[in-house]
Amino acid sequence: MPDIRSSFYDHIAQTSDAPMGLEIERAEGCYIHTTDGRSFVDLISGIAVSSLGHRHPNVIRAIKKQLDSHLHVMVYGEFIQKPQSEFAQLLCDQLPSQLDRVYFVNSGTEANEGALKLAKKSTGRSKFVAFRNSYHGDTHGSLSVTGRDVYRDPYLPLLPDVTFLDFNKPDQLSQIDDKTAAVITEPIQGEGGIIPANVDWLKALRKRCDETGAVLIFDEIQTGFFRTGSLFAFQHYNVVPDILCLAKAMGGGMPMGAFVSSSNRFEAFKHDPPLNHVTTFGGHPVSCAAAHANLQTLLEGNFEQKAFRIAEIACHMLRGEGITEVRGRGAMLGLQLRDADLTRKVVAYCFEKGIILGWTLHSNSLVRIAPPLIIEEELLEQCFQTIQEGIEEHR
Ligand code: PMP
Questions:
Q1: Hey, what long-range contacts does 23-30 have (CB within 8 A, 24 or more apart)?
Q2: 159: alpha, beta or left, given left = phi > 0 and alpha = psi -120 to 50?
């Protein structure tokens, strides 16, 4: 019997020549423990997923309870399943009244795919507007609106009618017109390097969509569920989208995504033809049970305060030579370093010291910091201290 390491390298399809290759024993709270007896602080939360830490007891309890009742029973939208209905209710209770319908999917990119289709079908238009430097996922529709040529070029042709504008540039919004089905944006660009939208720009974007009838889609897949301090980032801006896309932290560690819109708009999925957007596993009962417990726990936990405190400590402790900027909001932070070489060395240094960090997909000179929101301040300070040491040693 080959060992697990060789099976991983021989049979798991790889997406880089240098996978991190940690062999996982278990994960609990802020820590990931490996089979060789090491423990790592997960300072990126499995990339903005484990906001309550790994294996939060409330989430585990809900999963176990659902396991004893039923697993998959029928494709999305046919049977009444308690975990789905209860979670949709709790989610919609937190949202503005026009966001009253949830379509559950299994991942972020699927949420965006659904949102793009819903915008097309509900407007009868086909043009999309997206932003340079954005990231919306790796399936064909989401990739079509992702603003980095290096990821798009190998897969051309993609969707034909996509216009890319510069993020945060109000004078370009006139390119949104009455042929535009939808405009898609992240309120804070994540993989593009943790770049927040300007309030005035986002308000102008909302206004232009209202003038032209274009659907405004917010991809809150990374920013959602208190990552940036409020439940959703759009609440900081006081700008409400027509479709809200969610995933990542939504399932408390289970695969889960959704796009949320109005009952009126979702009428478009019922007719011409009926069942024109279906999924087998979307809204899986175990994922919904986990998501419900996750959201309930988040709502009860003062996480707004905790996310802001994480930002405060980061800005206070991470400064000095080699650091150009600490940016982002709440617990979605980017530490901009002098260059890619220093960033690689600092990430490697922290890894050796037992801290998992990373960079973002589009920016190799930025250290991503997205700790579980439950992290104790003392542990966070120790981690930042280690990052500082790494910078001082290699700058
Ligand atoms: N949108 C954003 C903003 C993301 O950060 C991601 C994942 N990094 C996605 C979409 C895609 O999500 P998934 O990997 O679940 O398909």
A1: 27/54, 27/55, 28/53, 28/54, 28/55, 29/53, 29/54, 29/55, 29/372, 29/374, 30/54, 30/371, 30/372, 30/374, 30/375, 30/376, 30/379
A2: beta
User: Ligand 1 centroid vs 359 CA: distance in angstroms?
Assistant: 15
Is 242's C-beta closer than 6 angstroms to any atom of ligand 1?
no
Cβ–ligand 1 distance for 221 under 6 Å, the answer: yes
Instruction: Kindly give the distance from the C-alpha atom of residue 3 to the centroid of ligand 1, in angstroms, as a whole number.
Output: 32
Q: Which fold has domain 58-300?
A: Aspartate Aminotransferase; domain 2 (3.40.640)
Q: Give the residue, by CA position, lying nearest to ligand 1 atom 14.
A: 108
* Domain map (residue ranges) of the chain: 4-55+302-394, 58-300
Reported CATH class of domain 4-55+302-394 = alpha beta
Q: What is the pLDDT of residues 254-311, one digit of tens each?
A: 999 999 999 999 999 999 999 999 999 999 999 999 999 999 999 999 999 999 999 9
> How many angstroms is it from 231 CA to the middle of ligand 1?
18
Same fold, 4-55+302-394 and 58-300: no
Q: Is the pTM of this model over 0.90?
A: yes
Mutate to test the pocket of ligand 1, among 143, 222, 363 (most ligand atoms within 8 A of CB): 222
CB 367 within 8 A of CB 347: yes
CA distance 234 to 29: 28
How many CA atoms within 13 Å lie on the side-chain side of 305?
6
Distance 395 CA to ligand 1 centre (A): 32
Measured in Å, residue 228 CA sits from the centre of ligand 1 at 16
Give the chain's largest Cα–Cα span.
Answer: 64
What are 142-176's pLDDT values in tens digits?
999 999 999 999 999 999 999 999 999 999 999 99
Q: Is 297 in the pocket of ligand 1 (CB under 6 A)?
A: no
Q: Which amino acid is at 308?
A: F
Separation of alpha carbons 199 and 217, rounded Å: 16
